[in-house]
Amino acid sequence: MNEKLNLQAPDLWYSAAFEAYPAVIAHEYWRLYDLLENKQVYGALLQIKDLFEVILKLPVLVYAAHLYRKERAPGENRLLLALLDQLSLGTWLGIGRQMYNQLELPDAASDINEHLKAVLDLFEKHKIVSWRNDVIGHGALSLNEAHDLESDIASLLRALRDFFQTQDQLYQTLVLRLQNAETYKSESDITDGILRGRAGARSLHRKEDDSGDPTERERLSVEYQDFHIELYPFAFVQAGDIFFFDGFILRKDKSDIISYPPGYRRSEHLPEILDLTQSVRRQEQDAALGGGYSGNTYLAENRKVIESIFTVEDFRKPVYLMDWLRESVLKQTGGVFHLQMEMGTGKSTFARALDETRRTGNMKIDFKNLTVRGYFLNDSYLASVQAFCNSINDFFNRDKHGDRTFESQETDLPNVQSGSETPREDVAALLNFYRDRYEWHYGTTRLLFIIDGLAEIPADQSRSIMDFIPTRDLLNDGVFVLLTSRPVYELPAHVRDAAILQPDNITGAKTIDRNDAEYQCVLSEYAQKEILEPLQLADRVQPDMLMHKSEFRFLYMRLYRELLKSYGDNLPSSLPEGALLLEQYLERLRKLYGDKFYQHLSTLLAILASAYEPLTLAEIAYLSGRDEPDFKMLAYLADLRGFFKTERSYRGNLISLHQEWKEGARSLLDETIRMLVRQWIDDCLSLPKEKLNAENDGMTYLFSYLHEYAENYCKVAKLAADTGIRLLTAFERFSGNDQQIYLLQRQRRITESALGVFTDSGENSMLFAKAEEYRGDVEFSLKEKLHGHGFYSSAILHLNQLPESDRQDCRGQLLQLFSKRASAALNIKTYRQHAIEDCDRAIQLFNELKADGCKLDVFSLVKIYSDRSTACVFEARYEDAVSDCDFAIQLLEETSSDKNDNQHVSSLARLFLNRGRARYHSGQLSEAYDDCSEAIRLIEKSQAARFLNEALFLKGSICFKLGDVEHAIGAYSHAIEQFEDMQRKGHVVD
What we know:
Number of strands: 16
Helix content: 55-70%
Strand content: 5-15%
Radius of gyration: 34 Å
Oligomer: single chain
Distance between the termini: 70 Å
Shape: globular
């Protein structure tokens, strides 16, 4: 700090407030003094923000309590409604302004009215909300570069001093009183329950002889001369801490509460707040405070912070790797290549810079005439074969913005299934297909597929991602596969000895270690250009010293960049080395923030260290108890970015930790993680069903990994059976029409967890079967038809093992399962006879249930007959196929009330097309022609473009067999035109 300014100088303070003012304000003002005395500058800045919050909230909560207890006019209901939301500092200020303008306290409290006006003026004059965003939001480590901290703080201290001087009479007269105070004691005597002075806010706890409930909420009241108001439920004492209401989370039916002295913030069910919310919302269906108090943190100021977190600004292009890729890889016609680099030396950064869907900021490497997609093995789930197959099936069909490139029916695109008998061939077919498609649409003739981080592939798998990597002979020209890993001597045996990594299968390889001269040249350039010159340290620190301290690893060097920023001109005499950097860096942040605020920062690091996959900001916010990212969270993340790997994805920007930082943080923050997990489990099990929301990514993430968190961090062998039921409930709420790959993968994990719970708890077969059915649905949606079929089969087996009376009650579920299994079997060539048998059983169950008076969906029966007719065509049972179509067409015509309904029209179209195909193969060409023509008419009516192409091709084949070459050519030409039109629109047709 600049020695010219003494921030403890008496003329900057109104020290009488420390002992004479209401306890919370007195304590927060004193804590500010204490932090500055201990040189914890950034903690002091956050403390100034907390002090301003308390100054504002105290009168606003007095107004809120007054409104709560009076008969309210409609406009006053809207004031309360604004308060019952997620609240930022700007929101509180807006509510305070509205309360001052629209509401008056009783005459006895007129001074409090004027006090609120003075508070509002204080905020406006010194632009406190803007100051908070501009100064605090960027984190502690950026401040030495951007602000004269001392003058900034001194200016605010003078503003506070002047404010307290003008409000001294009110603060010394106003009483904050604890009811039932005789059961409490604190660091100072509590006379008549009055909480005054800094000690009155600390160490409140029950006397030894008191047997009351420590979680009980004790009432607080405010008294001013003849005015008296109870603050509950907007303020209270619980377990010795003074809590203020801080917002309402509608999706959880919980209230945010905050205790400023210890820095605790949590969410609780406050029945009075919930009742108030429901009653006010009923009375004010259209109420909102002008829409201006949304609590939205994504304002311009915070966007700058977000951009600083996700934008890589310190990337130095590894020219030696680019040269190798250009000269030794891309000059080949194709093949499989292997890049080996030691951990922490930049191989994943290089790979991400190549992938146009992942890179951010200046982390960008482009080659002409090349499309790059990468698969990054940065967590345990992505190392699974199923995740690999699902992901490559999905992301090759996305452009650099995350939008789908080709729209199609599922059978049109190549699909790699985890159970494939020819996995290398299937992946090669997919790569060859997309190389051709990219050339068609974008003009690029080369495709590079990167698989990054082979060492992360686990050994305990029956089959591995290594089994799916194609060999050179399977790849068309222009298709390249780049594998990255640690050097062979560091690889686990199951990876090192994999067939694909043997010399005969590798077209070219390169190994880089930390002693490589070209690598060290880039590292030295980074130290000079990204650290020493920007921080003006070039005359005091040599690049070689930093390189040795960082053990010649980019991983450590990047954290040195953040650490040295924090010291500014006060560079220490020695710097930590290598792995010690993590602890030293966190200790530096603790000193800057102080314990109160450091615990919030370390909570975010604990969330990332324990995460099972990279997280979005929204997911991090949810896991930290926030409804959305707020400015404090962004500031903390800004100071942790030295640990981060960031990447773009179609579901949002993602944050993860490098594996070494992850392991180190887990070790240091073990108890914090356990505390978080216990809270998450409680939250998941207590969340009302109607609050489960698939649109909340944080919620879907947490339910997806709840089982793993419990096992790994809470020493819970298995969760109880009721948790399995809870997981199934979550699945029902999270499943639906959204087929985003990550949501489907999360649904898969939820069903995996539920099945694990039921297996270990001995839960009944009905629930087990339901979990297996849901898992089958997910596998089917992920195009894992064989796996889906297997789970449906297992579910049927469990239900068939039930006693007869229970099995009768499950006939509806069995009907669904047989129908679903038949649909899955249609997509498996050797299972199509089984599809016919499943349809037979489903039809039998449908008729039984109908005879028992059950209400059933006719369209479900039509689909069963349609599927059976399709299977019969595959099995050359053409007469049976025609019979099924006849019955289903008649059923639709007799039962459908709306002949123009799209479901009715498209179902009929499919049936006529099936019947036409069956008649074509059985030689009934005239009848086939009529069916095909009707199918085309219905398809055009329903605008099912893909079926039109299929029907036109069939019509051409029929005409050709009839000897009508002219019409055959016309139908084929129309089919080709349709095909080309769909191609232009980005659709893909077989």
